[in-house]
Amino acid sequence: MRFVEEVVVEEFLPTVRSLLAAELREQGLTQSEVADVLGISQSAVSKYAHGDVETTEAIAEDERVRSLVDRLGEELATGETTRVGALVEIEVLIRELEAGGDVLSRLHEERMPELADHDASIRVHDPDNELRTSERVLSSVRRGLRIVESASGFAGLIPAVGSNLVAALPDAQDVDDVAGVPGRIVDVKGRATVPAEPEFGASGHVASVLLAARAAGSPASAAINLRYDAGIVADLREAGHVAVEFDAEGDLTESVGEAIKAEPEATALYQTGGYGIEPIVYVLGPDAEAVADTARSLL
């Protein structure tokens, strides 16, 4: 008797590790760094590099496997995803490939011919799980932050209170369901600086603006705050954004909600300040990368 998990351990994992090790080496990582990323020994990396580990052609040539390996190799090398994020993505792919009739189930049937006559799918896990969704949101914020950090002159868009780039889970209810930067993005000697890795619950204010907009019907899943300037608002409008003003001194949820209800297509919100309140522009978008791109376009 052979379980599909044995196919995963004996054929899928060696194949994917071999492909991923090669991709990471192509990305410029040393053998030691590859070993650290994959959580294996340097001698194991050497074996993968020299083709001393047997791989399975059907898995290595699967388009989904190749696509995921290429993407994870780049994102792991640049820090756009974490080991946990990569593990979740690979785990989900495994469950997809275990579905009846797919590559792992076919290999399983070859090793266990009696299964070929069994109709039931052997898919056992839901790919749309909570951990995977959370990791995708965090990865989106990381990619957005890379855009912000590399954008020459972005520091000039940071308000005195600092900026934050946030992204929400699909069913976000409160700030703990929104990922952002602990300590905010700050201007350090004319350079936009991200002090820490994004995490959920790290943003209070910008997350609250995003949540209020979503509660009022906005489809936005991400937001960033920038310093207010009439020229910035004009540039956003010229680029096709719908910019709406809201009352800075009123209740935040109510004020933002009223603005969105007045202009449901709004992709930029702004307030011109009040007593002790700095004027701010908030850019909304479908994900953190899109929001960061919009901010970069203002430079």
From TrEMBL:
Source organism per UniProt: Saliphagus infecundisoli
Gene3D superfamilies with a match to the protein in the record: Class II aldolase/adducin N-terminal domain, lambda repressor-like DNA-binding domains
Source taxon at top rank: Archaea
Protein name stated in the entry: Thiamine-phosphate synthase family protein
Domain (HTH cro/C1-type) ranges: 20-48
